Amino acid sequence: MLGLALAFAIVLLIASRRLKVEVDPRVEQVAGLLPHAGCGACGFAGCDQYAQAVLNDVQLIGKCAPGGTEVAGKIAGMLNVQIDSSGPPSRPVVLCRAHTADRTYYAAYRGIPNCLAANTLANAQACRFGCLGFGDCMRACKFNALRIVDGLASVNYKKCTGCGACSKACPRNLIVMVPFHHDPMMVVACSSRENGKTTRAMCQVGCIGCGLCSKQSDAFQAEDNLARLDYVKYEPSGQNEAAYSKCPTGAIVYRGPSAPAPRPPKAKQATS
Question: What is the pTM of this model?
């Protein structure tokens, strides 16, 4: 038995030497610079896999959203390469601003308390474009940057790293990643494509597609009963501020660490 054990030990020793895979020591160095949040924002299974990918393709530097430009700069410095980090950070925006009191409900939902389950039912709420408010996005966030306030997902931009996990978790695709060229950033917090009359019946703060914003600024366009803002064109200006002020439902809002509270909707107007 002792002889067999010794023979097996020798075989295993030889196999470990013959089959040993050499690992680039820089992989551990790059991985050591990463936050190891496990968010998957870079597109890889983990930080170690991302570190290996960066060594194979330096164009991937900067894909670590939690690390941001600081970590990207450290990796670039370690590898002695130049990167362009001039682009704006992307941050999540919830395309809904309706709290529980702002919505119409056909019946109380008593099913599984998560958004994925509630989204399978037509009568979870009247508006099929509204936030379901069960917190799938909140649970997906590893940085405690989201919470549910009166049935509506809210982003804490001081904690948010822009990893995009919340966006992937929303079954209604209501959380989109927006390039934050400015702080605060102006956005249209609605995705409803119902006509104005229907939207008014279901939600007090939804976009009714009236087009008043597009008449004030060429950064806005109204189509399919919904106002859209071209984020590339957007700059703080009197025209865009006028579009914000004239929005009858207050669907145009500011988002970001220094964003003011959304204003209340104006009195109801006749809509088509």
Answer: 0.81
